[in-house]
Amino acid sequence: MAQAIVVRALGGPEVLNLEGVTLTEPGPGEVQIRQVAIGVNFIDVYFRTGLYKSATGLPFIPGKEGAGIITAIGDGVNGFAVGDRVAYASSDGAYSSERNVEASQIVKVPDEIPLETAAAMMLKGMTAQYLLNQTFKVGPETTLLFHAAAGGVGLIAGQWAKALGATVIGTAGSQDKIDLALAHGYDHVINYRTEDFASRVKQITGGKGVDVVYDSVGKDTYPASLDCIKPRGLWVSFGNSSGPVEGVNIGILAQKGSLFATRPTLFSYVATRPALEACANSLFDIVRSNKVRININQTYPLADAGQAHTDLEARKTSGTTLLLP
User: Fold this and answer.
1) Among candidates 276, 207, 218, which has minimal Cα distance to 242?
2) b/e map of 198-214 (b: 16 or more CB within 10 Å)?
């Protein structure tokens, strides 16, 4: 019998309970995976609390990201075989020792990349890929601000942006996290707990501001993030770890300099098979080049998913967190 974290009621980390679950044979278009590692992401918290709604309702198995070995294949699946090493960032269900997943949502993992690394980077790494290469095309002329620089996406994005030639500014909440970000591509890292980050950004940029702000924090960094952006620059709100931004008056974009704003999600950028493969292959290429290192800084047994969420929400984590079945 497979083991999985089953959410039967919305709430705090205490609702994450390990249960035995019956796993059926994979259906048409599905593969069955024995999971090696599972990525933990802040989006998992949103689903656990009900900020985001699970497509299946209650109960559900949370988690979007994992990697493992194919153990069975359903009808109509082409291009995959039992024994293939695969990874995904897709629908709910990752917090489990074994699972069925749509073959259209998985990609093969190159032999040079460990499955633990793949599980640690699919959602976060493909998020960095689309943010830096598609939402705003970062290059040598770009100056950017990335909040939560020492987080899972932040550490990948800092290295990737530096590889693209950008001037990279970040924010973090402790000296340890500042040092970590500086070691991963950031030119400047601002302690948001002790400094006014908008003033520091203006100081760093000689009063010009940045071309783009990448903001996964939300409530605590809005509207100050807008004060960091040069006229006609872009605010990218791709998460809300401190709470959602509410009551936005679109006129503020005019007041702050004819700014642009977007609220993207990874799943819109990988909605087709060609888009998924292109995004994943771009990520695999940058990791294999050693220009981006994937930091697995915390691991927990699957049964301790609640503790992993507690630490994540308390901002005690850095880099990537994995659950191990």
Assistant:
1) 218
2) bebbbebbeeebbbbbb
Two tokens, residue 109: 């993992």
For 297, the 3-state DSSP assignment is strand
Place of tokens 């559900």: 60
As to burial, measured by CB atoms within 10 angstroms (0-12 exposed, 13-18 middle, 19+ buried), residue 255 is exposed
| Closest by CA position to 152, among listed 126, 174, 187 | 126
The neighbouring-strand residues paired with 247 are none
Tokens 């294999």, located at residue: 288
- Give 10-residue mean pLDDT values along the chain (325 residues): 96 97 96 98 94 92 97 97 96 95 97 97 97 98 97 96 98 95 98 96 98 95 96 96 87 97 96 97 97 95 98 90 97
Tokens 């999600």, residue located: 265
Cis, peptide link before residue 26, omega less than 30° from 0: no
Inter-helix orientation angle 115-130/152-163, to 10°: 70
Q: What is the pTM of this model?
A: 0.92
Query: What CA–CA distance (Å, rounded) separates 308 from 156?
Result: 20
Q: Among 250, 241, 200, which residue's Cα sits nearest to residue 221? A: 241
Beta partners for 87? 67, 107
Strands 30-40 and 98-102: antiparallel
For each of the domains in the chain, give its residue range(s) and CATH number, in order of start. Answer: 2-122+294-324 (3.90.180.10), 140-263 (3.40.50.720)
- CB contact at 8 A, 120 and 320: yes
- 157 Cβ neighbours under 8 A, 6+ residues apart: 128, 131, 132, 146, 185, 214
Instruction: Look up tokens 């994992």; give the residue.
Output: 66
